[in-house]
């Protein structure tokens, strides 16, 4: 296919644009049709070059895009940090003394209803933020929305820091959840749009790494406060959150906008300028800025033929319904494969007698695994393993780990210490498997499966599905584990193991392989309703399709064609 596209790009390639004729009466193409033919030829050439591009060539050509994507993805670390704080503050005596109530045993504890409220408050705020992001980002762009959210978050951190009671903390969690939801969606979409095919999987997955280092710093800060008993023991960890927003904001101010978003707004010259800032064209003499912009334009015009609009309602129409369903399911699978259950490793280590800072040291090890797992997934992808294969094999391993945890529950009480230690260890094994597959690969899959016109809204809906499942899990899991409630203990592993198996069945039949495909090729595969199991082997040519609508150049829509001719 690459050779075919390269051949066509090198010739005076005229695609099927509806211009017909015969030997006696040939219709002379209009100026606009010539522009369209030129766009097709340039797009075909850029597509061929991306298919041939190696990982090293992509790194050399797009080093600035890598840097900007890493900066934007760093926003995700702030949510990981807060999740780590909330979960570990409940076992932190100074925090409980300030925001908890005095129990009959003479100790202070945050009531269960408020623990649930704090844990789920941010999730509810994120759902609101995700929905708003889908409306605002497509209209105003990635950068303006990010800047507003970072300023908003700096104000909300003040509420965390000064909160006089637990009700105020809950309000802060909800308000902070709004920008966190925006960060999750924008990080993935920005990464998928500023880089070429060879880098797309790696940069979208980097958001998961940011989650890991945010969590690791969070639990590290709490551990460093163990020697304090005053109010600063919990205020300092909240105050540390002020470090990130100003630094990231400075970077975002100077960051280039997504060229895909600019093309969708018909700002072609701005898109060229943005792409120029994302690349180092001198390192690759074959790179052509105009060709890459035309590839983006071609995909945009192709999607206009396939979809009727770009609203949330359009995510549930026609071929986009399937894509929305898969994106939502992939995000939900992260929580349905035992994610919440594995977060109780500290609890089981404490049951094994590892009190004080030792249990937190093990938890830090688990968060370290989260970060290392991202690089492990990168290594597996570099060996040629596709997203689908990693997802399926990961779900198999997670199911086995969860069932093993369930069977450990059959160990007699006389060996409770060893059983608790084994359970905590198995949770670390589960974490390694999770981060090598489901936890990391999901970020790449959701960024690639959604169409470009609806990507922001589709990823937002998918992440909202993740949060809905997370809220349900945050309510159910404490009841499963708590000795005063259902008291399932290890037997919860059977529940989550079964849930994981069901996710495996779904993924086998519904989740396709997007690796190595351009967005236009993925559009056509979905439009032709190709089975998920045949995505990787089906040949597709994005340039043998007639566009059904008239393309308008707009203010500068065809300006670069003229500029290219004048410099030839």
TrEMBL record:
Record key words, sorted: Membrane, Transmembrane, Transmembrane helix, Transport
Protein localization: Membrane
Cleaved signal peptide residues: none
UniProt entry tagged with the keyword Transmembrane: yes
Topological category with respect to the lipid bilayer: Multi-pass membrane protein
One CC-aspect GO term: membrane
Major location category of this protein: membrane
Residues that span the membrane, as ranges: 145-166, 172-191, 203-222, 242-263, 390-411, 423-446, 458-476, 488-509
Domain Major facilitator superfamily (MFS) profile: 68-515
Reactions mediated catalytically: myo-inositol(out) + H(+)(out) = myo-inositol(in) + H(+)(in)
InterPro entries to which the protein is assigned, alphabetical: MFS_dom (IPR020846), MFS_sugar_transport-like (IPR005828), MFS_Sugar_Transporters (IPR050360), MFS_trans_sf (IPR036259), Sugar/inositol_transpt (IPR003663), Sugar_transporter_CS (IPR005829)
Xref: PROSITE patterns: MFS (PS50850), SUGAR_TRANSPORT_2 (PS00217)
UniProt family annotation: Belongs to the major facilitator superfamily. Sugar transporter (TC 2.A.1.1) family.
Name of the molecule in the record: Major facilitator superfamily (MFS) profile domain-containing protein
């Amino acid at each position: 296919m690459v050779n075919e596209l390269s051949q066509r790009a090198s010739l005076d390639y005229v695609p099927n644009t509806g211009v017909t004729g015969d030997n006696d009466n040939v219709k002379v193409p209009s100026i606009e049709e010539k522009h369209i033919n030129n766009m097709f030829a340039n797009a075909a050439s850029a597509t061929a070059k991306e298919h041939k591009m190696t990982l090293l060539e992509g790194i050399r050509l797009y080093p600035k895009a890598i840097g900007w994507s890493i900066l934007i993805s760093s926003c995700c670390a702030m949510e990981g940090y807060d999740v780590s704080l909330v979960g570990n503050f409940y076992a932190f005596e100074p925090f409980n003394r300030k925001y908890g109530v005095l129990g009959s045993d003479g100790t202070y504890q945050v009531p269960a209803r408020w623990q649930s409220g704090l844990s789920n408050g941010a999730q509810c705020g994120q759902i609101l933020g995700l929905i708003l992001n889908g409306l605002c980002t497509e209209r105003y762009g990635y950068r303006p929305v990010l800047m507003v959210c970072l300023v908003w978050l700096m104000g909300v951190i003040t509420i965390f820091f000064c909160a006089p009671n637990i009700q105020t903390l809950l309000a802060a969690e909800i308000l902070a959840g709004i920008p966190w939801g925006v960060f999750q969606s924008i990080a993935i979409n920005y990464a998928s749009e500023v880089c070429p095919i060879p880098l797309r999987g790696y940069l979208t997955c980097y958001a998961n790494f940011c989650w890991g280092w945010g969590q690791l710093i969070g639990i590290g800060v709490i551990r460093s406060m163990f020697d304090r008993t005053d109010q600063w023991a919990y205020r300092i960890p909240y105050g540390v959150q002020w470090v990130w927003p100003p630094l990231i904001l400075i970077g975002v101010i100077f960051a280039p906008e997504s060229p895909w978003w600019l093309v969708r707004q018909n700002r072609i010259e701005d898109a060229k300028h943005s792409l120029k800032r994302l690349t180092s064209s001198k390192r690759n003499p074959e790179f052509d800025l105009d060709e890459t912009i035309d590839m983006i334009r071609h995909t945009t015009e192709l999607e206009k033929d396939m979809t009727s609009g770009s609203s949330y309602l359009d995510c549930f129409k026609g071929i986009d319904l399937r894509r929305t369903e898969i994106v939502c399911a992939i995000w939900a699978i992260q929580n349905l494969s035992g994610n919440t259950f594995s977060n109780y490793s500290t609890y089981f280590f404490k049951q094994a007698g590892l009190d004080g800072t030792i249990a937190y040291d093990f938890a830090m090890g688990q968060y370290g695994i989260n970060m290392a797992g991202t690089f492990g997934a990168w290594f597996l992808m570099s060996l040629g393993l596709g997203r689908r294969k990693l997802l399926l094999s990961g779900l198999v391993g997670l199911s086995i780990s969860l069932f093993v945890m369930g069977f450990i529950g059959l160990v007699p009480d006389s060996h409770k210490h060893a059983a608790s230690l084994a359970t905590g260890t198995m949770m670390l094994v589960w974490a390694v498997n999770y981060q090598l597959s489901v936890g990391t690969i999901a970020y790449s899959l959701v960024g690639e499966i959604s169409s470009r016109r609806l990507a922001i809204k589709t990823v937002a809906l998918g992440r909202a599905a993740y949060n809905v499942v997370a809220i349900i899990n945050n309510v159910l899991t404490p009841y499963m584990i708590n000795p005063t409630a259902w008291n399932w203990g290890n037997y919860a592993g059977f529940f989550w193991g079964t849930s994981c198996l069901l996710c495996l069945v779904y993924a086998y039949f519904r989740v396709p392989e997007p690796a190595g495909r351009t967005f236009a090729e993925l559009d056509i595969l979905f439009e032709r309703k190709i089975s998920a199991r045949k995505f990787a082997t089906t040949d597709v040519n994005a340039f043998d399709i007639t566009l059904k609508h008239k393309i308008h150049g707009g203010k500068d829509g065809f300006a670069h064609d003229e500029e290219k001719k004048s410099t030839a």
